Amino acid sequence: MIPFKKEFTFDERAEESAAMIANYPSRIPVIVERFSRSNLPEMEKRKYLVPCDMPVGQFIFILRSRLHLSPGTALFVFVNNTLPQTASLMGNVYDSYKDEDGFLYMCYSSEKTFG
Amino acid sequence: MGRAAAGRETRLREQLWSSLERPDAIADFGQPDQDPTAEKKKATWPNDCTWFELWILPCLRRAISVEEEYNAAGAEVVLDDEEDGEGWLATHGVQASKTEEEEDIPSMDTLDIGTSEGIKSIPTYFSSGKKEEEEEDIPDMDSYEDTGDNLVAAEPSYFVAEEPEDDNILRTRTYDVSITYDKYYQTPRVWLTGYDESRMPLKPELVFEDISQDHARKTVTIEDHPHILAGKHASVHPCKHAAVMKKIVDVLVSRGVEPEVDKYLFIFLKFIASVIPTIEYDYTMDFDLGSTS
């Protein structure tokens, strides 16, 4: 799948994020993509609209259930190459790490973590 | 894993435990009078008595109920998007969540007491009695009673608060999360000590409700805590911790970031989150993995 940033020009992306924020002021437009070296499947949805007050941990849980990960696999979600605090709210993460085009970009990776 | 890599990792861990600065959230129950640098050469935890505990962490909802709640809150709604046809996936369904919120909040409007004729508050009762007996004697009371009636209608004197039939109360449990050094696996090991709403200790079986169902009873087991004598405690089994930390450190190195030993625990805390998704323990720091390669 072509990365979102390469598929659309900056102006297209900025326009779309502005429209989503205008329509859903209490929600955040998030683009979730697979970490390039991860062997996880691609998700069929990469554009998410999440409530500002949802903790990052819960969002990871949602992604996890969509990916149908096997038990014992941990899902990591990076924002701008950073592992965010799981207790922080999506709204705070958005404020800290949002892209210039108005989207929050996250990428996911996983590790076989637990025995 | 090559010998050099294993040696490096052991050294990382070794240095971590002796040089870890104490973030505010972590209480150190060690023996402060001992010089940690003197123990540095040991490949194990520098001091048997040193362990970390994060106290009274809120756990707002049960991990096993997260999925149910998520579905109840409208789950996922795909919003159409004309531009590229890909569509947005809105979590907590846009429409459903709004109605849900309205229903959940007990409202004074729905109590319907102010307009009810059936219940009369005491001032109304007396004033209506007065009205009949003393109407002629004290003409001034007429105007007083009118305002009195209005007041009573607008502001009923006392309500009895009743538990709503639908249980919308958030069951906030609290957890003490302690981190010990596991000598066998030479990694940190996480222990969970749960308390219910009234700070009474939770049975270990109930602790499983707050553990991701993928991990409960497999990764997480009930064992004796090495430092807390009372009771059994839930623990995340550390047999894969070292390998995962190694992978993460490899990612750091491949991105040209020098791994810092005092960050070990912060990285470690990130991946524990998938086991205990609803316990809000990680207020430490975001972790920068360096620039994109």
TrEMBL record, chain A:
It is found in: Cytoplasm, Cytoskeleton; Cytoplasmic vesicle, Autophagosome membrane; Vacuole membrane. One of its GO terms (biological process) is autophagy. It is a lipid-anchor. Signal peptide: none annotated. One of its GO terms (cellular component) is cytoplasmic vesicle. Pfam families: ATG8 (PF02991). Keywords: Autophagy, Cytoplasm, Cytoplasmic vesicle, Cytoskeleton, Lipoprotein, Membrane, Microtubule, Protein transport, Transport, Ubl conjugation pathway, Vacuole. The keyword Cytoplasm applies. A lipid is attached at residue 115 (Phosphatidylserine amidated glycine). PANTHER family: MICROTUBULE-ASSOCIATED PROTEINS 1A/1B LIGHT CHAIN 3-RELATED (PTHR10969). Interacts with ATG4. Belongs to the ATG8 family. This is Autophagy-related protein. It comes from Paspalum notatum var. saurae.
UniProtKB/TrEMBL annotation, chain B:
Its main location: cytoplasm. GO terms for biological process: autophagosome assembly; autophagy of mitochondrion; glycophagy; nucleophagy; protein transport. The keyword Plastid does not apply. It is found in: Cytoplasm. Residues 23-42, 93-114 are annotated as: Disordered. It comes from the Eukaryota. GO terms for cellular component: cytosol; phagophore assembly site. Belongs to the ATG3 family. This is Autophagy-related protein 3. It comes from Paspalum notatum var. saurae.
